[in-house]
Amino acid sequence: MKKLFLILGLVVLSTGALAKLPVPVLDDAAKAKAEEAKAKTAHAGKVEAYKLCLSMERAASNHFKTVAAAGKTAKPPQASPACTDPGAFVWPAPATATAPAAAPAAPAAPAKKS
Prior knowledge:
Radius of gyration: 32 Å
Low-confidence stretches: none
Strand content: under 5%
Shape: flat
Mean pLDDT: 81
Number of helices: 2
Structural class: mainly alpha
Helix content: 40-55%
């Protein structure tokens, strides 16, 4: 019982210490890297959903083929949306590279005295 209270006390103290740590400041490169990681994770989810859709279609077609071969009748399959392939992951280049800086304006010609 004493061990449990000791562990519980240590956990409470450690969370209090972690709560006081400052939030790290991210620079532009770190923010871009974080956004890219977020986009990769979202794309990976789309790819997994696509693979799941394909496997469900294969399982359903196998089921109906097996049922038909056994001479039984099955309910017709429900209409489902077609599986869409998300394609390869493409991360766009950051839009920080803009047009080159404009050349400085030529100095005005001195006014002629008359």
